[in-house]
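2024-03-11 09:14:02 INFO receiving multi-entity request
2024-03-11 09:14:02 INFO entity count = two
2024-03-11 09:14:03 INFO echoing inputs for audit
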Amino acid sequence: MNTSGKNILGFNFSSQGETVFFAKNPATGYKLETAYHEAIPKEIDEAITLAENAFTLYREKTGEEKALFLETIAEELFQIEEGLVGLCAQETGLPDGRLKGELGRTTGQLKLFATVLRNGSWVDARVDTADSNRKPFPKPDIRQMQIALGPVGVFGASNFPLAFSVAGGDTASALAAGCTVVVKAHPAHPGTSELVGKAIIAAAKRCNMPDGVFSLVQGASIAVGQAIVRNPLIKAIGFTGSFRGGKALFDEAAKREEPIPVYAEMGSVNPVFVLPGILKKNHQTLAEGLSNSVQLGAGQFCTNPGITVLPKLTESNLFEDTLKNSVAVSESSTMLTESIQDAYNRNLEKLKTKREVASISIGKKADGQAQGVAEILSVSANHFLKDKEMEEEVFGPSTLLVRTEDKSEIMDVAKSLNGHLTATVHGTQEDLEEYADLLKILERKVGRLLLNGFPTGVEVCHSMVHGGPFPATTDARMTSVGTAAITRFTRPICFQNYPDSLLPDELKAENPLNILRIENGNYVLP
Amino acid sequence: MNTSGKNILGFNFSSQGETVFFAKNPATGYKLETAYHEAIPKEIDEAITLAENAFTLYREKTGEEKALFLETIAEELFQIEEGLVGLCAQETGLPDGRLKGELGRTTGQLKLFATVLRNGSWVDARVDTADSNRKPFPKPDIRQMQIALGPVGVFGASNFPLAFSVAGGDTASALAAGCTVVVKAHPAHPGTSELVGKAIIAAAKRCNMPDGVFSLVQGASIAVGQAIVRNPLIKAIGFTGSFRGGKALFDEAAKREEPIPVYAEMGSVNPVFVLPGILKKNHQTLAEGLSNSVQLGAGQFCTNPGITVLPKLTESNLFEDTLKNSVAVSESSTMLTESIQDAYNRNLEKLKTKREVASISIGKKADGQAQGVAEILSVSANHFLKDKEMEEEVFGPSTLLVRTEDKSEIMDVAKSLNGHLTATVHGTQEDLEEYADLLKILERKVGRLLLNGFPTGVEVCHSMVHGGPFPATTDARMTSVGTAAITRFTRPICFQNYPDSLLPDELKAENPLNILRIENGNYVLP
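2024-03-11 09:21:47 INFO inference complete, emitting structure
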């Protein structure tokens, strides 16, 4: 499909800047045809001013109207599936099957938020009715609900060009919350971004949404993102990417005259603990499962298992052998960009220069550019505990085996961990009883704790937490995947002594939307 | 009642520092007897280390156990009511009646959180059950709930020595959430703080709570607070006080290696809009109501109405006359501290040096030190709109009348406002219909919007929002009063593929706690 290379400012296209950049096919190293115009400050301000003006209208839309809008975006995306997947594959090197799956995930996510809006109970409505006879003072009528924050800046991620990008979780949840959105497209897939942006605009027009409900700005330089964060009309930021990028946005936002929330999901190492009992029983399938999880999507998942903690057992050697063999015969695949592949190699080298770290298996390099070759490293827990650098993310298909001597060393490794998105424990029932303390320690470190599985694969559902303590994210109180993500972009307000006619429907006496409410302290479902 | 002047580090008392300070009776200017030992870094670290160790035990307590603890604190406070109110009156100059009311509010607040814990539904439990037949991938079992963040630092406020101090809203909600608490006592009422701290410790012992669940450190210098915010074991901060103090804590927390949330409620000017229709009808009672609200507690309420926006009408003059007369005959009362009284006078002078601002009425100065004399200033909206300094808080019994020329000027004033805790509109039904846009503008500026009342008086209930956009607070997504305050100190976690026996009760298949849950997207009340 053709792309224009222009920025999308509300319902208009704009290419006022002189700086252009190109997408590159990472598998071939060749650059693609379209020149993308980096947004200039004037264009960014225009997008944000449109978003502010649109917000005063969009925030008044009913749940039904917003639900239809999200569903229409999903419809528009399905209509361009073939062209979109084709261009996206060129820009990212990801296989068609994966991209089709990702598109399905994205449209499913939009539809899931539509069900949340139709249900309506997400606003946490609270009603306390008046009591004029109360002593010593009469009790006033007070009613609370969540309302949208304002225009939101979203930064597309490179590793999920559909699910965590222009119409991904951040945009879907912000639009669901009632916020307008200005997306900064990731420069690794500008064409994909433009196509998705156009689909959103088409949906906005079909649904009579205001001009400015959505905009998309292009840019390869850091200045574009900074201009978004610094604009006083922007009220929150969603970001998925590197620690460095996310932390820079966080710092920038904290320095504003009016600080704003930054939801930066910055990835993590997702430690996997294999306990003795299960290792004895299932060392082979565990090793194969780990090998698959490590290599999924060329290791380019936020939840990739970068550390695997092993007990000291005869079977640990068998586990390692299986893992080594599985990786040794594996073929590399194309990474998303040359710079990601460079960083992967650089980070591996950095680890391997440490005397205590050994490389114990390495995969086969396939033809093509930007190949991410799988690699397994190992280190003793004793050394791991002395060097915090070993806990840093190596974004790519590798894991560091941490060999422990005994139970107390396993516990020490757990206690030493920073915040991560996930932690995984493999164990039999007896293991898990014996290591109950391990689970308690890990609870304080992560957003998702999983047993006898692998962390790659983040289910979009009501219960998902894709988040976790710093440095996994800049705000552990929130999730960036799942329906709970909507409250990132809202705040509570209460109305005191309002006549029924002036209250929002969510808070009216008759509860016309039939939503869950807390009425005088009681949870009431119609 | 006697006080020791010592810091309370878990279950022990400590006075290792050599710096001491004294409380002062603001009404007499005389200092009280007890020397309070400022906590030294070692003591602060000890309190926080105890809080961390206690947290691993306290967070496992059931809702029922925590509820009993909160109720026992309330009981212990009631038992010392007479002595506590007596000492507090000496330290703050506040009348006994007010302090008894405040104690009732504080104990009521503790009991209200106990009911929230017994109900148990506050944890936002979400259950998505597995579906092994789902295509293309099986659906895993995932369950989410809120868990406590860790040790919390609380800064007592001076203006509500019981309700927003040692056992106030921040401590109550943090303990309810499952967090341990280290309080920095406000140096204006150190003895009151010690007595309340001892009551909490007595309750902790009676309820078998771990040593370190609560600590209290004293200090008159900024270093004590800084040491709390900088300690890496502290996971959140609660604060009520000045903009300068709150913003400094926010900046300090953002600079930490691991940034943490700071909930600083920094007060605001709480604009009151009087619309034409109601002014014609009720100018006299409105003026009297405003006079009372402005002078309540010597104007030392976060929600004190500091700006009153008036339309241009004959009746506006009558309103002003009533207000002037009411204030002119009013007697001043003692402010909380000499420095608050100094700042009040200084801020008034700063406003009055502006050529466009007139002082139109001033109250009578009563005998005694630190008297806060009521004063009414006025300015034209035209000038108000040109000078943002006029929107700054003058903490004390004054309000600035902003005289508008027409409806569009009323709207312009509303649009120009920063974030505030509250906004108030007085209007007839017709006024409110005609000024529907005004309400919509104000919705984006405040945490609480009230009609035909006065903002002083913050009801402790489920629907209250005591918060609002910056600069009223540093986190508009939260409230510091009301039961929703509990989620300031929690974050979500999800458990994937857990056997029922290992899940927290809140998430077990049979829902043994009988709480509200979102089960596969449906809200389910047992």
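2024-03-11 09:21:48 INFO post-check: The domain at 7-21+30-266+475-488 of chain B is CATH 3.40.605.10 (Aldehyde Dehydrogenase; Chain A, domain 1).
2024-03-11 09:21:48 INFO post-check: The first strand of chain B starts at residue 7 and ends at 9.
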